[in-house]
Design goal:
Layout lengths: L1 E5 L6 H10 L3 E6 L14 E4 L5 H7 L5 E4 L11 H19 L4 E7 L9 H14 L5 E6 L2 E2 L5 H11 L2 E5 L5 E2 L2 E2 H13 L6 E5 L5 E2 H11 L5 E5 L1 H11 L9 H5 L11 H6 L18 H8 L11
Parallel strand pairs: 1-2, 1-4, 2-3, 4-5, 5-6, 6-11, 7-10, 8-13
Antiparallel strand pairs: 9-12
Helix pairs in contact: 1-6, 3-4, 5-7, 5-11
Bound molecules: NADP nicotinamide-adenine-dinucleotide phosphate.
NADP nicotinamide-adenine-dinucleotide phosphate binds next to β5.
Length: 315
Amino acid sequence: MLVLVTGATGFLGRRVVPALLARHHQVRCLVHTPGRERVFPPRTVDIQYGNVLNPDALTVAFNGVDAAVHLVGTIRRGNRNTYDQINRQGVANVVAAAKAARVKHLVFVSAIGATGNPGYPYLFSKWQGEQEVANSGLSYTIIQSSIIFGPGDEFLNTIAAMVKTLPVVTVAGSGKNRIQPIDVEDVSWCIATAVDLEVLKGKTIELGGPEQLSINEVFGIVARTMGKRRLRLHLPVWLMFIMTWFSQVLPRPPITMDQLRLLPMRNVAEPQSVEDNFGFTPKTVEGNIDYVKLLSTREAFRILSGDMPSRIRDH
Ligand SMILES: NC(=O)c1ccc[n+]([C@@H]2O[C@H](COP(=O)([O-])OP(=O)(O)OC[C@H]3O[C@@H](n4cnc5c(N)ncnc54)[C@H](OP(=O)(O)O)[C@@H]3O)[C@@H](O)[C@H]2O)c1
């Protein structure tokens, strides 16, 4: 089966592609920034350059495709319209091209907590994307993932940067809100498997790791992994909003206003979802994040000053 992957060179996409190849699919990658296809060994995948906002490029990319995995999405707003363009219009364009190409299965990766409430702009735009897919008439599966960790992630690397450089780490609010981080290789395997599963057609599946952890526990795991002990300073959320607002002048702020807004939202998945739908238990955070130990002090300062080092994340 020929599977098109959009967002193929991203954090998740570069793991989804090998997972699809391991499942004996042919893979075509939609590459947004020419040159980034270098993350794949030569001649293992077919490359099409294009932007999801360009319907002509999508028509070419979808030519002869049997199934597609749509991963393009953004949690960072370059301007007021980025979410609407990428997370809604981009999905609408992909849906239209998939329909024209008579694609048999579209797997769309959304986020846990996607909501029709416009007060949460990121989750609202992901919900709008879901609506485009669910109302398309295509056979589809929507995957709502919890926060994803693995080498190159922004979440744990930012916490690690704080642990590395600061004697006391700052946490927004009580830090008791729960998340369910899931390993990037595990999510990728679920996505690649979903492409083949008839039983998942028409369904929305939540994905989360094996544990629901409070933010405080996640800080503790990262610090332990790095062999450090750190006191936590709990700042009121309003103060974090002010500090984050000022940090938005940085080229790549460690946290955005929208990410801060997500804190009180539900960010845990249905328990056992990976086991029930995909037949394996995903990896825990503790014991599987040795990459945070590799962070140098210089790299940690760069992350906190909004300049993500390319060794850690090259896109
Ligand atoms: N990472 C998480 O923790 C997480 C959690 C839940 C859900 N998700 C969802 O999972 C999906 C993938 O996330 P990710 O972390 O892999 O994101 P990512 O690392 O930012 O990758 C995004 C990919 O999309 C490409 N892209 C961006 N704009 C494009 C455009 N206009 N046209 C075509 N391609 C474009 C990027 O290419 P360039 O780099 O060349 O621009 C990159 O390959 C997203 O939909 C996200 O909402 C992620």
